[in-house]
Design brief:
Elements (H helix, E strand, L loop, with lengths): L1 H21 L6 H35 L1
Amino acid sequence: MKKFIKPIATALAIGLLSGLAACQKEQGPAERAGQAVDNAVKKAGEKIEKAGEKIQEAAEEAKK
């Protein structure tokens, strides 16, 4: 009897997880807009970081 518990539990878990994944709805307009904002903020942060690095390099070069 114990031989069958693990395979049955595994099959149930796989079935449950695949069922949950199949029920996932497509993104709505608010979620897409939120992702667009997140991406824009991330890109802006990266550009600000690069600008800061260039300013720091210029300041170090000016000290020489």
